[in-house]
Amino acid sequence: MKQVYRFVGSKGFILPLVSWPFFWITWLFLDAGGFQAGRQAKEPEAPAEKVSAVEKGTDDGDGFDFSQFIVSDEAFNTATGGGEGKEDVEIELPSEAALNLHETLTDETGKYAILYFVWVTALTPLKVLFRRSKFVSALNRHRRTIGLASFFYACLHFGVYLTNGLTTVANDLTAWIPYILAGWAGFLILMVLAVTSNNWSLRKLGGKKWKLLHRLAYLLVPVLFYHQAFTGKGGPERPETIREALLWFSPLILLQPLRIYLEWKSRTEKQGKAGSV
């Protein structure tokens, strides 16, 4: 069993677990056509055949011939100044493939960012609940790696969001859309935690200040939950997104209250012993 615990605590165990989603997302991107998905030209639609009495030169049934009122295309262009050098202006809209790819990448990157955040945040209560578990102790060695993986996929999620265009991003911010603001707040807090997740920051800040700063992770729990549960989907889809968010955050919802209870119980027992002495 020692070899198993040693393997769980090694880089050979954690690196594949945090890197395989990146290869999965890359495969989705390439399988959907990649950058070409947004450049697919629409096939020109064949002009509808005009079937009318006027174009056929037939009468209207009353013996009146409309063909004498038909103007040729050449005569019309000469009179209106159209024809040569004039091209129809077409508005290029995102293709369906590009829209589907954008939504898929947004969902996948966001889910993996939250997955690793929930994982790294659940390690502390697991350590409190199972103090003697060597398996939990081995997993806790990867706290920094898992936390950085969460920030990495959050960066990918943020990058996909920026492909909407700066104008759309600015409009989202000025409109004060709650779930968008929650996403921005969550990303900024994750950035602070990731930037300070190194030994140099620990030495500069000191143990107490560094630990206090990284307790911002607990503030992230409701922020990211709200961002995922209310991510722009309303109507009949809203209950589904809320249930999905509850499922993803269920480890924290179950473990954190137990951790708080055990810490409170341990503290009161210590105070009771100190008072009796």
In short:
The chain has 277 residues and is mainly α.
Largest sheet: none
Rounded to an integer in angstroms, the radius of gyration calculated over CA atoms is 31 Å
Structural class: mainly alpha
Mean pLDDT: 82
Tell me what portion of residues adopts beta-strand conformation: under 5%
The total of beta strands comes to: 0
What is the helix tally? 13
Distance between the termini: 42 Å
Q: Helix and strand string, N-terminal first? A: HHHHHHHHHHHHH
| Helix percentage | over 70%
Flag low-confidence runs: 53-58
Dominant shape = elongated
What does this structure look like?
- There is one protein chain.
- The protein contains 13 helices and no strands.
- Mean pLDDT is 82; it is low at 53-58.
- It has helices spanning 2-8, 11-31, 53-56, 73-80, 96-129, 134-140, 143-162, 166-174, 178-195, 199-205, 207-213, 216-229, 238-276.
- It starts with a helix and ends with a helix.
- With 277 residues, it is mostly helical.
- The longest helix has 39 residues, at 238-276.
- 70% of the residues lie in helices and 0% in strands.
Topology:
Elements: H1 2-8, H2 11-31, H3 53-56, H4 73-80, H5 96-129, H6 134-140, H7 143-162, H8 166-174, H9 178-195, H10 199-205, H11 207-213, H12 216-229, H13 238-276
Helix pairs in contact: 2-5, 2-7, 5-6, 5-7, 5-12, 5-13, 7-9, 9-12, 10-11, 12-13
